[in-house]
Design brief:
Elements: H1 12-29, H2 33-40, H3 44-51, H4 59-68, H5 73-80, E1 91-95, H6 96-109, E2 112-117, H7 128-137, H8 145-152, H9 155-159, E3 164-170, H10 171-175, H11 181-194, E4 200-205, E5 219-222, E6 230-235, E7 238-242, H12 245-261, H13 265-297, H14 313-321
Parallel strand pairs: 2-3, 3-4
Antiparallel strand pairs: 1-7, 2-5, 5-6, 6-7
Helix pairs in contact: 2-3, 6-8, 11-13
Length: 329
């Protein structure tokens, strides 16, 4: 007979997101756990389990916390939707304004973290200039570009908390010149530097790999010590988080196949160095071509040119009739 899952783990992904939203509301209102426990007549331990996603609060308890923190009504309704029963509790969709905060919270708790990117450098390892250029080309749907960029700039603080990062990058993500050659050269060099960091593995999937026909979109596989694993996926309208065991098994199999087709770490580092040098050379050639074009099209300053005064007609006639000054031999 199958042992039923404990109630507090029935919707772990939603519990954790609810806990994150409650923690943020309490932090912004400067309300601590003791104040909440006193107001609701419960223990600090129970409140702590609500805030960490290890226990599901009732709708009344969650609403009471939000009222205590003076959260606006529209935001309260959105947060309480996380407690609504779903047909598939293993799926959580997040809007653009919440996706980076959720990613940061989940990634910070992950032990090993597998990050795969097919056509863009992952948020976690982007340089600020790359992030800015990417958002200029692909602005978030319904989101504030400045706000999203500001949150993405906090990636280094998240990276410091990740114990193990396995980065799988398709070569296409490095060949698409987001922001131009200078931006890409700095981005690729930054990835090469990360390869020397303890706990970080950077491996490249070459573009000439025949398995590229089955390459999926980018995703992040996060494993945790006390919670089920989570798949994070960017979406045009925000992000999708999955924690159903079927989804985790499928994506873990994809990650294993991608790892098998990727170059080893040393060869990947050589390729990163080569690509960065190619971008540097392209930048140099572009600057040289622009300089040459400016020189070719620059206007000539006639005022500084030497003035040649043509001889008058009378002087020409006099020189033609003058006797030859050369003595006869």
């Amino acid at each position: 007979m199958t042992t039923p899952k404990p109630p507090e783990l029935a919707q772990p992904i939603r519990n954790r997101e609810l806990g994150r939203r409650l923690r943020r509301a309490m932090r912004e209102a400067r309300v601590d756990g003791l104040t909440v426990s006193t107001a609701l007549g419960t223990s600090v331990y129970t409140v702590s389990r609500w805030l960490t996603g290890r226990l599901t609060p009732s709708v009344m308890d969650a609403a009471s916390i939000l009222l205590l923190c003076q959260v606006p009504r529209s935001q309260r309704q959105e947060i309480l939707e996380l407690l609504r029963p779903e047909c598939d509790p293993g799926v959580l969709r997040l809007p653009v304004e919440e996706q980076w905060d959720a990613y940061r919270a989940f990634a910070a708790d992950a032990k090993p973290l597998v990050e795969f990117a097919s056509f863009m450098v992952p948020w976690l390892v982007q340089t600020p200039h790359y992030t800015h250029a990417y958002l200029m080309h692909v602005p978030p749907s319904g989101g504030d570009v400045v706000a999203v960029e500001a949150k993405a700039r906090q990636a280094p603080t998240v990276l410091d908390t990740v114990l193990r990062l396995n980065l799988l990058l398709h070569e296409c993500a490095l060949r698409i010149p987001v922001g131009g050659s200078e931006v890409m050269a700095d981005q690729v060099r930054y990835l090469a530097l990360l390869a020397f960091r303890f706990g970080v593995s950077v491996r490249i999937i070459p573009a000439n790999n025949p398995d590229n026909l089955a390459i999926p979109a980018g995703f992040t596989l996060m494993d945790f010590a006390d919670f089920p694993s989570v798949i994070y996926r960017d979406d045009p309208t925000g992000a999708i988080l999955l924690d159903h065991h079927r989804d985790i098994a499928a994506y873990r199999d994809i990650a294993d196949r991608l790892s098998d087709s990727a170059l080893d770490e040393d060869t990947s580092l050589d390729l990163l160095t080569t690509i960065a040098a190619e971008y540097d050379q392209h930048t140099t050639d572009t600057h040289r071509a622009r300089l040459t074009h400016r020189c070719d099209t620059a206007p000539v300053d006639v005022g500084r040119s030497p003035t040649i005064t043509p001889p008058a007609p009378a002087e020409i006639q006099a020189s033609q009739h003058a006797p030859d000054a050369t003595p006869a031999s």
